[in-house]
Each structure stands twice: as structure tokens, then as C-alpha cells.
Amino acid sequence: MTKLFKQLPTHIAIIMDGNGRWATKRGMPRNYGHREGVKAIERTIEACLKYNIKYCTFFAFSTENWKRSKEEIDGIFELLREYISKNDNIFIEKQVKLRHIGEIEPFPDDLKACLVDIEKKTEDFDKLTITFALNYGGRNEIVRAINKLLQNGNKSIDEQVFLSQLDTKGLPEPDFVIRTSGEQRVSNFMLYQMAYSEFYFPKICWPSFNEKHFVKSLREFEKRKRRYGGV
Ligand code: IPE
Ligand code: IPE
Ligand code: MG
Questions:
Q1: Residues with CB under 5 A from ligand 3 (ion)
Q2: Active site residues
Q3: What's this model's pTM, rounded to 2 decimal places?
Q4: Which positions of the chain have pLDDT values less than 50?
Q5: Could you give the CA distance from residue 131 to residue 115 in angstroms, rounded to a whole number?
Q6: Which end of the chain is more exposed for a tag (fewer CB within 10 A), N or C?
Q7: Rounded Cα distance, 112 and 106, in Å
Q8: Are 148 and 74 in contact (CB under 8 A)?
Q9: Site to substitute for ligand 1 among 132, 181, 201, 204, most atoms within 8 A of C-beta
Q10: H helices within the chain, ranges in order?
Q11: Could you count the other beta carbons within 10 Å of the beta carbon of residue 48?
Q12: Which atom of ligand 2 has the smallest separation from the CA of 187?
């Protein structure tokens, strides 16, 4: 399968947007859109395995998403709980490593426990690494990293040392960022890591995203010429 592509991204980062609009358009509550969005995550993970993508990161909850109603936030937490317990064995069977970026400290205790547990169980796998960005904000991540460096008594650092304090430590930079729903903005996602990412903004809302859209995205990436400042 991989042979069919001239180049494939190593790390795809997805800003899953449009769940609410997708549901509203169908006369359904916003949380129904999030529920259908989880199915799109499952389809995307299957597609990553099929097309041999090694890293995929999903922006699931931003530091700004606390502005939403308690009902919506609790609904998202509940979906996360269900998702992890339902897929627990699947991650192990398929050798998928699960991790998170962002500060999960303010999350409900049982949800934090579930996350820590699945991360521990899958930490040695390397077939595919799935990262969930949870209570994640690029600015927050950078400031936390600087504070850790200051607390360690650093006076001057280089880029490698800085990278080692980011939540994304150990992950390659995302070479391909997909944002669904037609919005063309970054919304505080991986600000430092996106320095040389290729961007793609399909109009489709996240709950509709399927293997066909995934392949279309890979075809788009295939066409990109990456120069990194060279000629
Ligand atoms: C993305 O969909 C999911 C999260 C931010 C949790 P939205 O909920 O932002 O959907 P829209 O943008 O309101 O349609
Ligand atoms: C970005 O989507 C955050 C996630 C996908 C989790 P938002 O819907 O929160 O972003 P804005 O508010 O449209 O910029
Ligand atoms: Mg949105």
C-alpha cells in the first residue's frame, strides 16, 4: 500500500473540527456530533495502520474549550472514558501506543486513572503512536516548559534542551496538519512543533471524515514540495 505513495507523512496531526456544526445541521445536540466524531477517530486509526503512518495526534480538548457548557464538557469526558475502555484491548492487540499531551490535572480522577493505565499498558509498543491532546494549548505547553527549565536552574538553553521539556518529547514534529470543517486557523495547537508542517483544510466536518478523505489527504501531502528554506 505504502508503495503507492511517493511520500507519506511520518506524523499526522489532526485538528478535529466541526462536530457541533455537523450535529446542529442534523437537528441533534452538539454532543451527538462528538459521539460520531469518536467513530471518525476509530476509522482514522484503522487507516493509519493500513497506510503505515507511524504517528497520529488528535486535538481533542483545548485549553480554551473550558469556555463551553458544563454539559458539553462532561459529555466529552464521558466519551473519552467510553472510548478508552472500549478500545483497551484493541490497542494492545494492534500494538498501538497511546499517550497524551496537555495538562490532564484538572480532569476527573477516574478519567486520569484510565488514561495513565492505558498509557502504561501500551508504552512499549511502536507500530503506531496515537497521541491525544487533552487540555492542550501550545502557549501553555511552552510556558510550562520554560518554568521547568527555570526551576532546574538553567540560565541559557539550546533548542534540543527546550524540546526535551515539551509534552511532545520523543514525538517527531508533525509533518502534516489536517483541520476539518473548513476553518483555516491553528487555534493554539502545537505552535512550536508546526514550524515546517504542511497544512490541509478539507471542508468536511470531522464526524464525516472517513478512509476516502484520509487517502485524499495523503494524496494532497504527496504533492507538496518541502524546501525547509533551501531551493
Ligand atoms: C471539534 O468540534 C471538537 C472539539 C473542539 C472538542 P467543535 O465542537 O468545535 O465543532 P464546531 O466547530 O462547533 O462545529
Ligand atoms: C480547536 O477547535 C480545538 C479542538 C479541535 C479540540 P475549536 O473549535 O475549539 O477552535 P476555534 O474556537 O474554532 O478556534
Ligand atoms: Mg470548532
A1: 17
A2: 17, 65
A3: 0.98
A4: none
A5: 11
A6: C
A7: 9
A8: no
A9: 181
A10: 19-25, 30-50, 70-94, 109-122, 138-151, 159-163, 211-223
A11: 20
A12: 14
